[in-house]
Amino acid sequence: MQSSSVTDSTTRLGRSDLTVRRIGLGAWPMAGITSLGVTDEDSIATIRRALDLGIDHLDTAYSYGKDGRSDRVIAAALHDRAERVVVASKVGAYLDSQGVWTKDARPESMLQQASEVRDRLRLETIDLMYLHAPDPNVPLSESADALKRIVELGWARWAGICNVNRPQLEDFHRRCPVVAVQTYFNMFQQESVEDLRDFCRSHSISIVVYWALMKGMLAGRMLRDHQLDPLDRRRNYPIYQGEQWQSAQDLLDRLRSKSQQLGCTVAQLVLAWTLAQPCISVALVGAKRPEQVEETARSMEFTLQNDVLATIDNWIADCKQHGAWKL
């Protein structure tokens, strides 16, 4: 894929036989852990609307919600639908009794979680199973062998890994070949993909990114005077405060102007820019209501020319220089 434009709305994940649209639906908001106002009815309607719009890649995890909430709404949404859907999940982490995300990538835990995920989703085989994150208390080699075993058992067709640096990816891939690596990426946070890009390119591993809209900030609807709900956990992020907020809004002001000029929304502009970055195959976008996924799905319709991409890159560099972003 060239960095100059978005030319195709589909992509193949690594060396697998999985072909998906380049916008995928991330199910984390549907878990109702950090997102406010989540209902299962809205989540099911959102998934169904995504399918109607051609989104064919759903991303969930064992740890997405108490008692597998995101898995269960996906199962409910898919039970009477005939569309071909690629479902990805993750094992190696869970929510403890206090709702705290906890790593547990012991082989026995990963196998148990993979079995439960299949039951929750009502699927014999998951298309793509990731290790959610390396566990500092478990040798990465043991987690790799466990995920390879999950594939050998037929519980997953292909393997992937999330939230790793390059040395970790190299070590994992040697023991358990992966077709995709998932990491965070957005206009404010580009370092993780820069670290992985060369290795993924040389080994035909797809990069799947989340946080492309930085938890809603880069959707452009929160203006400079916006006040987050007192219960909104985003209030704890430095970029949502003080000078960093103002610097981010400086960039958003420019993106709002450009999106109006191009006849798209800010979110669509940001996602089109994201998909134009080298080696990024898929952007996962969370949603909890149908109208949110309607907007983001249409970002695949937009092609950004070289001059627009260069202008945006200059804006990002300029704003970052005048207000270093810490997330």
Short description:
Helix content is 39%, strand content 17%.
Structure description:
The chain is α/β, with parallel strands linked by helices. Helices cover 39% and strands 17% of the residues. It has helices at 40-52, 69-78, 107-121, 140-152, 166-175, 191-202, 242-262, 266-275, 290-297, 306-322; strands at residues 10-12, 19-21, 23-26, 57-59, 86-91, 93-95, 101-103, 126-131, 156-162, 180-184, 206-210, 280-286. It has one domain (10-220, 265-303): Alpha-Beta Barrel (TIM Barrel). The two termini are 29 Å apart. Residues 1-7 have low confidence and may be disordered. It is globular. It has 10 helices and 12 strands.
How would you summarize the topology of this molecule?
Layout: E1 10-12, E2 19-21, E3 23-26, H1 40-52, E4 57-59, H2 69-78, E5 86-91, E6 93-95, E7 101-103, H3 107-121, E8 126-131, H4 140-152, E9 156-162, H5 166-175, E10 180-184, H6 191-202, E11 206-210, H7 242-262, H8 266-275, E12 280-286, H9 290-297, H10 306-322
Parallel strand pairs: 3-4, 3-12, 4-5, 5-8, 8-9, 9-10, 10-11, 11-12
Antiparallel strand pairs: 1-2, 6-7
